[in-house]
Amino acid sequence: MYRLIFLLLFIINYPLSIIHCSAQDKDIRSVQFFVGDNEQSDQVMELNGTEQLTLWFDDLNEERAPLNYTIVHCDADWREDGLFFADYLDGFEENPLRDYALSFQTKINYMHYELRIPNKDVRFKASGNYLLKIYEDDRSAPVLVCRFSLYENRVVEVPLRMRTPVQTGEKCLQQLEFSVKHASLPVRDAYRELKVRVTQNGISVPGIDPPKPVFVDRDEVSYTFTDRNFYPGGNEFRIFDTRTLDFGAQGVTTVRYDGQGFPYALLNVDRPGTGRPYLFHDDINGKFHVEAYRMGNRQLEAEYVATGFTLKTDELHEGQVYVFGELSNWALQPAFRMFYNHETQAYELNVPLKQGYYNYRYVYVGNNGTVDFTAIEGCFSETENYYTVFVYYRGTRDKYDRLVAVQSISSL
Question: What pTM did the predictor assign?
């Protein structure tokens, strides 16, 4: 019975809250948003610290009008909170994207953009959640929207612990236990003033409600309880490598070129992970890294490669299958929907992706709008995941949700 309840919890409507960057234009590709030079980091950094957030993306429409950006403050649930610009930023409300260049000697031309914030035009004054909006001339119609968070350097401790669920025979769940030690904050009502959010591998977990306090002490709030804070372990991400086009590298069966010299990489035939034993392998938790061997400037010289995915399985008549990960901006994009080929008896997809090292997985979406992250990939409690706890505080005199603590832990 418990297993049935668990499955019902995680087959749910797909929430917008897990999206890191949302491309509103089909020509915006290869979006990466991270801290400093660490491409595998999440978009979270200390307010008034020494680091910068880095945004990279390509625009396949090389004739687009100049792009601009603006930044908006949000509450703990990523809703724009109406905070006045001068309360959260020093500088200019709208700024041009100045760092861009045209690709060099590639089969498909593209414009590559880069942005680092804070910079001389914008400096942050408030912690919390933010939206970075990239647009042409109308900021109400952005071509790209990205989320990031800034936390305060306060003495708020968040001890974390992973444990094995006590349910006998359960081999899919991972359990997170933690507490919030808030002696430095004047918390009077923990249920109203504190909000806690949890991410798995940098994204919110579908079907999981925000944690609620279990026990409230004077300077500590406990979120530890035997039947709460369960998360599906899922499976390790799949991998392919197109950093070289001279031969088929990891996850690639063959590389060939059409009559005009455009490259095509056919990936290995995949099969569902359900019904198979768990197998550990190192992944980068769904992200990707742009790189082209023997190229001087990987961002301007890497090719866009027509990449062929194949999932060998019976047709799923009650829903659709998507390729999912940072390569799809952590969203169920139409461009990443697979279609069933009755001749090959497999789901197939061809999509242009920039040369690099990629992680991905398959996600099933029912015709009624429900989403299942485990139906194709399987689910194991042994899977390596990292969890991050965000603690927001809004006192009686505060005008916004302050991010006062961020803490991460690995499931291994």
Answer: 0.91
